[in-house]
Design brief:
There is one protein chain. Strands 3-2-1-4-5-6-7-8 form an eight-stranded mixed sheet, with helices on both faces. It has a four-stranded mixed sheet with strand order 9-15-14-10, covered by helices on one side. Strands 12-11-13 form a three-stranded antiparallel sheet, with no helix packed on it. The chain contains twelve helices and 15 strands. It folds into two domains: 232 residues, Rossmann fold; 118 residues, no CATH class. It is globular, with a radius of gyration of 22 Å. Strand 1, helix 2 and strand 2 form a beta-alpha-beta unit. By secondary structure, the chain is an alpha/beta fold.
């Protein structure tokens, strides 16, 4: 039997892979071999020697040179398939990938190792109306799930308790990332191969909606594939129903374009957006807060930081007098909204932590608008 997949469809699709660890390596490799033409790879980490035993795309010298995973992965994929176009995106899916970029994708493949990152991928994909394929690995176990906007959603499966826990941790905290990383389960190349292969197969199916509709192919959407290598069992289980009250899977539309970019200053952005929207007063609601200073709760000492909330913890780590203080002993002075009262007008939107091609949530006197940056 021939492959049911159409080569032209795979070559012309836009596919994003989030996470370039053991699983991401396998997924990227399979995409290159299957003839994917346009791939975006997202990761913030550098290659380390510990990655080499389970990452087909990385070499010892990459670790010694401390190269970024996305850069190395892009180079190796081009070596495997000279016609592939790979765009490395160095950053954190929580804040550094604009919704406008996600909107260009046909499918997103999540190869991350924690709940917070999955939550962030899901939120972006649901807002953009793009399906995504989640993979998870630990020890000899692998799982794959498919989420299609309007049909099912990762956040709905978390349940009220899981959501509450995430919501509590969401605002402005670089600490989240570290906590989640601390509990990482050991993985191997074997389970990454099995799981990554199923993920790519499911992602390619999503590029052929007519075959899913006719029944020639069946998507995993609404179910979870579980592979358990220890006793060699596989099962496919149904996932909980879609919750109409879930606030996380709201689609952001309609989206209007703007001339504003990440290089535009706050002053200029406010002026341009007012003109474009025909409003005398507007408020931009960025995804992350902006912190101008941090104050100790046990005294008057304060430190100017001028950074997006996500970068504050790292900045404090570089200050000998601030390093050891627990977050609970600090108060951060932050801005969650950008309007005419925002004092640092000469900063660019990028300096506030707003990524390129972001879709801004802007409120005017008459409601809210979704505005896609150039
Ligand atoms: Zn939901």
């Amino acid at each position: 039997m021939n492959s049911p997949f159409c080569a032209d469809r795979i070559a012309s699709a836009n596919i994003m892979v989030v996470g370039c660890g053991a699983l991401g390596n396998e997924v990227l490799k399979n995409l290159a071999l299957m003839g994917a033409g346009h791939v975006w790879a997202v990761d913030f980490d550098r290659v380390e020697t510990g990655n080499l035993s389970r990452s087909v795309l990385f070499r010892k010298e990459d670790a010694l040179e401390g190269r970024f995973k996305v850069e190395v992965a892009a180079e190796r994929l081009r070596g495997m398939n000279p016609t592939i176009e790979v765009t490395p995106v160095r950053g954190d899916i929580a804040f550094d990938v604009g919704l406008g970029l996600i909107r260009k994708m046909d499918v997103v493949i999540g190869c991350v190792d924690n709940r917070w990152a999955r939550y962030c991928i899901n939120r972006l994909c649901m807002r953009a109306g793009v399906p995504w394929v989640d993979g998870g690995i630990s020890y000899l176990e692998g799982t794959v799930r498919v989420f299609i906007p309007g049909k099912n959603c990762y956040a709905c499966q978390l349940g009220p308790e899981g959501l509450k826990d995430l919501a509590r941790r969401m605002p402005c905290s670089g600490i989240i990332r570290r906590d989640e990383q601390a509990g990482k389960a050991p993985t191997s190349s074997i389970i990454a191969s099995v799981t990554g292969a199923v993920q790519v197969q499911e992602a390619l199916k999503l590029l052929h909606p007519e075959l899913l509709e006719s029944g020639e192919l069946t998507s995993l959407c609404g179910r979870m594939f579980c592979f358990e290598g220890e006793h060699m069992t596989t099962k496919v289980v149904s996932l909980a129903a879609y919750d109409d009250d879930c606030p996380v899977h709201d689609r952001w539309e309609p989206v209007r374009p703007t001339e504003v970019t990440a290089e535009t200053t706050v002053q200029e952005a406010l002026e341009v957006l007012k003109k474009e929207l025909g409003a005398s007063k507007i408020t931009i609601h960025p995804g992350d807060c902006f912190v101008d200073r941090v104050i100790r709760k046990d005294g008057d000492a304060s430190l100017e930081v001028m950074l997006p909330g996500r970068n504050v913890a790292e900045r404090l780590g570089k200050e000998p007098e601030w390093r050891g203080i627990p977050f609970s002993g600090l108060y951060q002075h932050e801005y969650r909204e950008i309007d005419d009262s925002f004092p640092y007008r000469s900063l660019t939107l990028g300096q506030l932590g707003i990524p390129e091609k972001e879709v801004l949530l802007v409120s005017t006197g008459s409601g809210e608008e979704y505005i896609e940056m150039k």
